[in-house]
Amino acid sequence: MLPLVLLKTAHGHPVLVELKNGETYNGHMVMCDTWMNIHLREVICTSKDGDRFFRMPEAYIRGNTIKYLRVPDEVLDKAKEADFRRDEKRPAGGGRGRGGRGGGRGGMGREGGGRGRGEGGRGGGRGEGGRGGRGDGGGRGSRDRD
């Protein structure tokens, strides 16, 4: 399971966020973006030593300052369930990797897929055929041949 899937599932639930500097923030998650920036409401901030507490209506925490997050077990269960359902819906064999729609290497299949004049396809490359910019259809170094 990806961390962002877990965080998106935690919307509206209480979370504990510990920062790299030692401060902790307890609050209800309002929003989380792809950089793991987090917006909390009804926040209690605890200092690094644990001797000072601050109550705030809301807090915005930048993702790269986060050391770890603690979420309730029910959020973990919901995220696992959602991940499982998503995997069931995904069709087998589709998606990433090689493969495709057939035709083999080079694109257009058997007939009509070549490059030069004699192969029945579009012109191209530097040799004979294609749009070379010259009247003979050739590119650099093309000669009249018998």
TrEMBL record:
<feature type="compositionally biased region" description="Gly residues">
    <location>
        <begin position="92"/>
        <end position="111"/>
    </location>
</feature>
<dbReference type="InterPro" id="IPR027141">
    <property type="entry name" value="LSm4/Sm_D1/D3"/>
</dbReference>
<dbReference type="GO" id="GO:0000398">
    <property type="term" value="P:mRNA splicing, via spliceosome"/>
</dbReference>
<feature type="compositionally biased region" description="Basic and acidic residues">
    <location>
        <begin position="79"/>
        <end position="91"/>
    </location>
</feature>
<dbReference type="InterPro" id="IPR010920">
    <property type="entry name" value="LSM_dom_sf"/>
</dbReference>
<keyword id="KW-0747">Spliceosome</keyword>
<dbReference type="GO" id="GO:0005681">
    <property type="term" value="C:spliceosomal complex"/>
</dbReference>
<feature type="region of interest" description="Disordered">
    <location>
        <begin position="79"/>
        <end position="146"/>
    </location>
</feature>
<comment type="function">
    <text>Binds specifically to the 3'-terminal U-tract of U6 snRNA.</text>
</comment>
<keyword id="KW-0694">RNA-binding</keyword>
<dbReference type="InterPro" id="IPR001163">
    <property type="entry name" value="Sm_dom_euk/arc"/>
</dbReference>
<dbReference type="GO" id="GO:0120115">
    <property type="term" value="C:Lsm2-8 complex"/>
</dbReference>
<comment type="similarity">
    <text>Belongs to the snRNP Sm proteins family.</text>
</comment>
<keyword id="KW-0508">mRNA splicing</keyword>
<dbReference type="InterPro" id="IPR047575">
    <property type="entry name" value="Sm"/>
</dbReference>
<dbReference type="Pfam" id="PF01423">
    <property type="entry name" value="LSM"/>
</dbReference>
<dbReference type="InterPro" id="IPR034101">
    <property type="entry name" value="Lsm4"/>
</dbReference>
<dbReference type="GO" id="GO:0003723">
    <property type="term" value="F:RNA binding"/>
</dbReference>
<feature type="domain" description="Sm">
    <location>
        <begin position="2"/>
        <end position="75"/>
    </location>
</feature>
<keyword id="KW-0687">Ribonucleoprotein</keyword>
<dbReference type="GO" id="GO:0000956">
    <property type="term" value="P:nuclear-transcribed mRNA catabolic process"/>
</dbReference>
<keyword id="KW-0539">Nucleus</keyword>
<protein>
    <recommendedName>
        <fullName>U6 snRNA-associated Sm-like protein LSm4</fullName>
    </recommendedName>
</protein>
<comment type="subunit">
    <text>LSm subunits form a heteromer with a doughnut shape.</text>
</comment>
<keyword id="KW-0507">mRNA processing</keyword>
